[in-house]
Amino acid sequence: MSTTPTHIDDMAEAADQATKPLRADAQRNYDKLVNAARDAFREHGAQASLDDIAKRAGVGPGTLYRHFPTRDDLIDAVMREWTVQVEADSDDVVQAGLDARATLTTWFGKFVENIGIYRGAAAKVMSAMDDESSPIYRKCQVLVGANDKVLAHIDAMGELRAGVDSREVMRLVSGVASVADEAGMSLDQSIPMLDIVIQGVLRDPSAS
């Protein structure tokens, strides 16, 4: 898809506006909305009522939509802390000195557990993986980058199956997380599904 110069200018202007510091009162409202959304998403999932979130924050719907024009914009803001945790988890698992299978079990398990805090978030991540228009797209790139780091570690151990694509792996793990979310499954109950993904990621010793 081609991008017109006007569209590029619009995108640049939007990016500039997004980086401008907010006035103190606007920042307070922004923070209250994010905190209220975090609680609402934990209780009711990613489809929680936006009007209810505004009421929890003590602001009007207009204030919510000025800060977050779409639901995904709000989810993106709530998930910022999550992406920081994702990067920290990838560093921790690489440095833990575990064998290849334990490394992947720990890494995938942490992802399923953390994304499961916000009901419906796993499905949102999965759908935004290739959607550059989604505010969540950048979070997906952080996730794929963290997974690249873990898979590179597995590869350095000589345990990575040839041709494994990091983005496809994250799509599969997000699918497992989404199924677990919908079914109300615990992490322990999700491990057998994750193990199927892990078997596809690790090199088959019999093939050597």
Describe this structure in words.
Residues 1-19 have low confidence and may be disordered. Helix 8 (121-128) runs antiparallel to helix 10 (166-183). The protein has eleven helices and no strands. The chain has two domains: 5-70, Tetracycline Repressor, domain 2, CATH 1.10.357; 80-207, Tetracycline Repressor, domain 2 (Orthogonal Bundle). It is elongated and about 60 Å long. It starts with a helix and ends in a 7-residue tail after the last helix. It has 208 residues and is an all-alpha fold. It has helices at 5-19, 24-44, 50-57, 61-67, 71-78, 80-95, 100-115, 121-128, 137-156, 166-183, 187-201.
Q: How do the helices and strands line up, and which of them pair or pack?
A:
Elements (H helix, E strand, L loop, with lengths): L4 H15 L4 H21 L5 H8 L3 H7 L3 H8 L1 H16 L4 H16 L5 H8 L8 H20 L9 H18 L3 H15 L7
Short recap of the structure:
This protein has 208 residues and is mainly alpha-helical.
